[in-house]
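Q: Could you predict the 3D structure of DNA polymerase I?
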Amino acid sequence: MSDQTPSPQSPLYLVDGSGYIFRAFHALPPLNRPDGTPVNAVYGFCSMLLKLIEDLKAERLAVIFDAGRLSFRNEIYPDYKAHRPEPPEELVPQFPLIRDATRAFALPCIELPGYEADDLIASYAKAAREAGQEVVIVSADKDLMQLIQDGVSLMDPMKAKKIGLEEVMAKFGVAPDKVVDVQALAGDSTDNVPGVPGIGVKTAAQLIGEYGDLDTLLARAGEIKQPKRRQTLIDNADKARVSRELVRLRDDVELPDPLDSLHVGQMSAEVVLSFLEQQGFTSLVAKLRPHLGASKPAHGGSSSSAAAAAAEDMRAAVRDYELIQDEPALAHWIEMATEAGIVGFDTETTSLDAHRAVLVGFSLAVAPGRACYVPLRHVAPRKARQGALDLGAAGEAGADEGAPEQIPVDRAITLLRPLLEAPGVLKVGQNIKYDMIVMAREGIEIAPIDDTMVMSYALDGTRHGHGMDELAQIHLGVTPISYDEVTGKGRDRIGFDEVPLDRARDYAAEDADVTLNLHRLLKPRLGPEGVRALYERTDRALVPVLARMERRGIRIDRDMLGKASREFADGMAALETRIHELAGESFNVGSPKQLGEILFDKLSLPGGKKGKTGAYATGADILQKLAADGHELPAKVLDWRQLAKLKNTYADALAEAVNPETGRIHTSFALTVTTTGRLSSNDPNLQNIPVRTEEGRRIRRAFVPEAGHVLMSADYSQIELRLLADIANIQALRQAFREGIDIHALTASQVFGVPVQGMDPITRRRAKAINFGIIYGISAFGLAQQLDIPQSEAKRYIEAYFERYPGIRDYMERAKADARAHGFVTTIFGRKCWTPDIAAKNPALRAFAERAAINAPLQGSAADIVRLAMVALDEALEASPLGARMLLQVHDEILLEVPEAEVEETAALVKRVMEDVVSRPVPYVVEVGTGLDWDAAH
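A: Sure. Here are the predicted structure tokens for DNA polymerase I:
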């Protein structure tokens, strides 16, 4: 377990990580860690790694994984592995944990998009043999038997059995160098390799033994005596050749990590013991601790002591921030980050809009206090303004004669790409989705990632904010340099590309340093606090999905928006004329002060209340009450405001938001803002477009697909009502949902005692109002207003509802009690939804918090289901040959752009994936619609 230089004679162990995961999962009984996450495969994997390192005295070792389900073979044969089932649900959360385990054991963790683990193993084996090293492939996969030769052997890790020439002959009937030819003929149903129909392994071995190789066999197929076999080979010669390309392992893949870097590193007691403790592997902890010189659990075994240690490290570390201005220095930092297996990463740009921002520089951090800044597009300083800040000329670095020395952008990107795309190096960012979009525009796809902002949200919800400065102050006790300190404020603000390099270095490097320290503090909390699965399977997994959605954007018909804007303006003008007639004078309808004076001073309408400024309150609630009492002027003002919002906020603003480079709108999705886990959309906000009015739907009609495509809307039907039946365990409602019964008609029948058949629509509408109102803790007063009935009648309806469904009242009381006891309620996936005013003395605040406690588990669980669905749907679409891609997510709806020719197949896949994403007693049904605009699709 040392980091000493391996002896030249030590074998190189190449571990088939992906293959072993499945074997460990099926070989070991179910095992869950304290938070319920399954970890049997993780335990088997960790045990195997320790055995290899200790029992076999392994010095050189690398663990190699599949980067994804798709590889270059799918380009050769699109149906390759198409029939493979999805991995078991209990195994999915263990995939990232096994990679974490590999890194915790200080071992190379290697994967490469576009290639399978077997290809990397073949390439490393070839390179090692050429370097005179012995190779042991740790796997029992038959596909790897083709690699066996002098100096290259297989070892079955489960049986500790060596696989050599004898075992290959027994399996395939030929030597290893002919295995590919036999597989090409026999095919492989597991991987959907076609082979030649009717030819099995035994027959294939006989044919290859007789003719020597596949090419000779196919060339001389006409000589075969058996007529059926002869014709089959002639007819399927191309299938055999394609199959050979599918089963033959590539041994010429460019190695992601250098061969000489594949060795067992020095384990950190803090890292490995903390990881094992989080999984609940007490036996492995006890076994390892003496060898690591650790007498107690890492950081005392608690998240609080880990936090204290991380904070102390941050405060005690000497700030060793470096400015990188030449390629050798950058290469050195990249080497350090690669060796560490984890790097804090941050970008500096010219804009908060990631889709228009220009990359100015980036920073890397590898240890507390150890970080650097790499400027790329800083410009020459100009004369100081106000004597405080240097101002730079606009343009690319190097365009002006006095521009600071910097690495050429294309060279820096070329050097950086392998690090940011290396599967074995974890990239840690704060709101890394922004950095992923910025770097994607430079041609780099960052992966794998951790995000301290998202991690903090999974841990603490909206208990506090998740900006880096706030997290640094809360957890590390430090106050980072502010953006204003380096760029100035107001009219004196300069772009970051104009900031002098020494100040830019200190600011940018500190960002990466703080981020890496936050990661060291927050990640150990995930397991003990029961949110590791929520973070890894849902929130973190969603980051790259959203980044891709934001980059795609959505097309807008600007002409349609322009026409709508003009018509909204005409409507506003007509309304203003009528409002002035009703008021008896002209005034500014958009002025709350002037409107209040007209309503309450001139017209003497009831309900006028002045605020601290002396002006009357004229909010929507006040105008709605006046309108409900029959006053026309406030009703017309509400109509005017609606049109003004549609015109200014949507018709005009959306047209301006179109990106000139792409011709599409690119909204930004925030993962860490809402109490319940719902995503929010901003710049522009596409989630609040009114859909209940004809004017509002006109805005949605301006969202259109590319030519040859349609928009597809996939919407969870009545998801919160289904969750209420699910969580509150209301058997009648559960059964109704399972049987597809009209839930509102059923409620009306149960509560009002009327038959479903021939039910009065008004009665059903009342039941619907109660069903949805209950979710939000509606009062008798609120229901009375909504249904326009006496409050006493509304009260009777609610009482009758609870008498028929007592489990719902029990759920509501339980939710409020949980909120009072803990300060939060949780979703079915463990997300904490905080209710800070649950014990407020103010009755109105307390009542609002109680309603939130009732609704949050429902809305929050719905939000979590949608998040899971987006991750699953993204994976399913990427793995399929379909051209559909997700564009937007609004509440319970996912909007996609789909080729016209693939609508039916895509709809089936979308519905299946979304409905199967969670298994609960109540079915979560998805309704799919399509159209040539968003409104038509929905």
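Q: Anything worth pointing out?
A: DSSP finds 37 helices and 25 strands in the chain.
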